[in-house]
Amino acid sequence: MKFTEAQRIRNLPPYLFARIENLIAAKKEEGVDVISLGIGDPDRPTPDHIIEELIKEARNPANHQYPSSVGMLSYRQAVAYWYNQRFGVGLDPRTEVVSLLGSKEGIAHISWCYLDPGDTVLAPDPGYPVYSGGAILAGATPHYIPVCEENGYLVDFDAISPDVARKAKMLFLNYPNNPTGAVAGGDFYRRAIDFAREYEILICHDAAYSDVAYDGYKPHSFLEFPGAKEVGIEFHSVSKTYNMTGWRIGWAAGNPEAVEALGRLKSNIDSGVFQAVQYAAAAGLTGPQEIVDRQNAIYQERRDILVDGLNSLGWNLTKPKASFYVWAPVPKGYTSASFAELVLEQAGVVITPGIGYGQNGEGYFRMALTIEKQRIREALDRLAANIGRVSF
Ligand code: MLT
Fold first, then answer.
1. In the chain, is it the N or the C terminus that has fewer CB atoms within a 10 Å radius of its CB?
2. What one-character-per-residue DSSP string does 156-198 give?
3. What confidence tens digit (pLDDT) does each residue in 9-53 have?
4. Nearest CA to ligand 1 atom 4
5. What is the atom index within ligand 1 of the atom nearest the CA of 38?
6. pLDDT tens, position by position, 97-144
7. Residue 200 and residue 222: Cα distance in Å, rounded?
8. CATH code at 318?
9. Which residues are noted in the entry as pyridoxal 5'-phosphate-binding (predicted)?
10. Cβ-contact 366, 131 below 8 angstroms
11. Which of 286, 321, 356 marks a domain boundary?
């Protein structure tokens, strides 16, 4: 029997990291000791107090039943508490926070809440592929906004034509940024809020990396700025902050109407996060935060080794202030895909080609800092031995 896929599924490209996983598996089968600087997936353990809370709550039969699809009030209170401690932002846990099965899920589903077929969403290019993927699934059309090195990878609102802005219903922003590691300051967020007000656009800010930062830098939440809750929501999770990517728990916070719409959608299609996991995530959010600084010190050391190592091979990179990504140009004569292929074939090292984040990511590649420093050193040694010095 031949099944005809819906057009919106046919429009969806294969997911970047699914493709990379297949490549790694194939290389491993050939017996190659692959060093993956591909996906940004924290390698350090989830802190003990979070695991202890999970074990305790998993033993309670009351937690074995269907959870609330929008999250337990105590979990949402923990999110509100964390926002207050971390950013000085006040949130009403009943109306301004909804739990998610990881922020990726909410980022994809928000498009279903606000986009009809034919609608336009503004998505930065390069950008996390889920911004456009969710919109495509909703039958909408992403309009890509190029962001570039010269502009610090910040969206230039003055360069968006008023015709495009008038058509758009949503805008995705993401700082600290994946894949570029760029960060945004107060002036940028204030300008974004003005832009959203002028064109009545919902801002969806992805803040997954707000707590992965270096050299004492503390990234902002978009919700810190006046008017943010009127025009937008922020997606976040415990994944990157507390090494919990596999646990699948996050949240959206901010604009009450958008929070309610997401909650309504989710109550129709999923049954929420296992309550023991909600308790454990709450323990992370309300517990000791020194773990975050300790972890950032580890990533910072890795960042320094990687950036210094690449610079000694001919790159001229500035160290990113946040996120665990190093974004670098490909050497002369390569596309991002051909360079990634060369590095995998010659050195057994996985890097992510910039084209996977959009047309404007062409000419760059991304390396993640989520492996031990010894392996980063080894990756650099292999690059030095097999690729040598590069030019641009
Ligand atoms: C990445 O490597 O870009 C992230 O780990 C993807 C994700 O958070 O889903």
1. N
2. -GGGS-HHHHHHEEEEEEESS-TTT-----HHHHHHHHHHHHH
3. 998 888 888 888 888 888 989 999 999 999 999 999 999 999 999
4. 40
5. 2
6. 999 999 999 999 999 999 999 999 999 999 999 999 999 999 999 999
7. 17
8. 3.90.1150.10
9. 128, 178, 209, 237-239, 248
10. no
11. 286
Token pair for 120: 């336009």
Provide the CA 194 distance to its chain's centre, in angstroms. Answer: 24
Quote the pLDDT of residue 367. 98
Verify that 239 and 341 share a domain, yes or no.
no
Pairing, β 168-174 against β 141-146: unpaired
Confidence (pLDDT) at 118: 92
Atom of ligand 1 nearest to the CA of 178: 3
How far does Cα 323 stand from its chain's mean position?
9
Give the C-alpha separation, 34 to 121, whole Å: 38
- Strand, coil or helix: 42: coil
Binding residue positions for substrate: 15, 40, 128, 178, 366
Residues 39, 154 within the same domain: no
Is 195 domain-assigned? yes
Q: Is 391 a domain residue? A: no
Token pair of 99, please? 């739990």
CATH number at residue 81: 3.40.640.10
108/6 Cα distance (integer angstroms): 17
> Of all protein residues, whose CA lies closest to atom 1 belonging to ligand 1?
40
CA distance 17 to 353: 11
- In a shared domain, residues 92 and 226: yes
Full residue range of the structural domain in which residue 357 is found: 7-45+290-386
Number of structural domains the chain divides into: 2
Same domain, 315 and 274: no
Q: Would you say residue 313 lies in a domain?
A: yes
The torsion of the CA quartet 347, 351, 356, 361, rounded to 10 degrees, works out to -100
CA of 370 to the centre of ligand 1 (A): 11
The predicted pLDDT at position 23 comes to 84
| ipTM confidence score | 0.91
Low-confidence ranges of the chain (pLDDT < 70): none
Domain termination site, one of 286, 312, 331 = 286
Query: What is the distance in A from the centroid of ligand 1 to the CA of 143?
Result: 22
For residue 1, being part of any structural domain is answered with no
Which among 101, 76, 128, 112 has a CA at the least distance from the CA of 254? 76
Let me know whether 274 and 343 are in one domain. no
- Host H or E run for residue 254: strand 250-254
Are 160 and 300 part of one and the same domain?
Answer: no
- The tokens of 44 are what? 């350090």
Are both 69 and 195 inside the same structural domain? Answer: yes
